[in-house]
TrEMBL record:
The chain crosses the membrane at residues 20-41, 47-65, 86-107, 127-146. It comes from Aliisedimentitalea scapharcae. The keyword Metal-binding does not apply. It is found in: Cell inner membrane. Part of the tripartite ATP-independent periplasmic (TRAP) transport system. This is TRAP transporter small permease protein. Keywords: Cell inner membrane, Cell membrane, Membrane, Plasmid, Transmembrane, Transmembrane helix, Transport. InterPro entries: DctQ (IPR055348), TRAP_DctQ (IPR007387). It is a multi-pass membrane protein.
Length: 181
């Protein structure tokens, strides 16, 4: 059962990896076929675009899970660390409200307002299969924002920015590696 929850907790990562691998391979195939045989598959480009769009939205959800979304944080340098997490949580409420409203709008568009005969040009499937990523990804993003705030406020975990680099740790690792040689 823990393996199941591990997969669910990292679902965006697995989806992004799969999408990236497939659309890069498809585009590579397209380049090879176009270069060697002066021929191209029209559906490869269209499918790659749709896969890239899905990749972007699931990637945004994954960034929310990691607490890695862009924020303006300069003003927090003047505040105590305890206050920062509550101010960020308050700001995240607006993000959550936006996501919930966007999920509502996208579901309404896909199931009520979208042209029933609108299909992809070369592959021929209904475009609702492309747009369905919107409510799915924004729902996941909302769940991830709530998870991050739960971990920061309730569990009092320190969220480390994945883009931050501890230069002292890197220097220590480099010095250790030089000393082992």
């Amino acid at each position: 059962m823990s393996k199941f929850w591990g997969i669910i907790d990292n679902i965006e990562s697995y989806i992004c990896r799969t999408l990236l691998a497939i659309f890069v391979c498809l585009l590579f195939l397209q380049v090879i076929v176009r270069t060697l045989f002066s021929f191209s598959f029209s559906w490869v480009e269209e499918l790659s675009i749709y896969m890239f769009v899905w990749f972007v939205f699931f990637g945004a959800s994954y960034a929310a899970k990691m607490g890695a979304h862009n924020r303006v944080t300069f003003q927090f340098k003047f505040l105590p660390p305890r206050a920062i997490k509550y101010i960020e949580a308050f700001a995240d409420l607006f993000w959550i409200f936006f996501n919930v409203y966007f999920v509502y709008l996208s579901v309404d568009f896909i199931f009520n307002k979208m042209n029933r005969f609108q299909s992809s040009q070369t592959m021929g499937f209904h475009l609702s299969w492309v747009y369905i990523v919107l409510p799915i990804a924004f729902t996941l993003m909302t769940i991830r924002v709530l998870q991050v705030n739960y971990r920061k406020i309730i569990l009092d975990e320190q969220m480390v920015d994945p883009d931050s680099i501890d230069l002292d740790a890197v220097k220590a690792e480099t010095d250790d590696a030089k000393g082992e040689k």
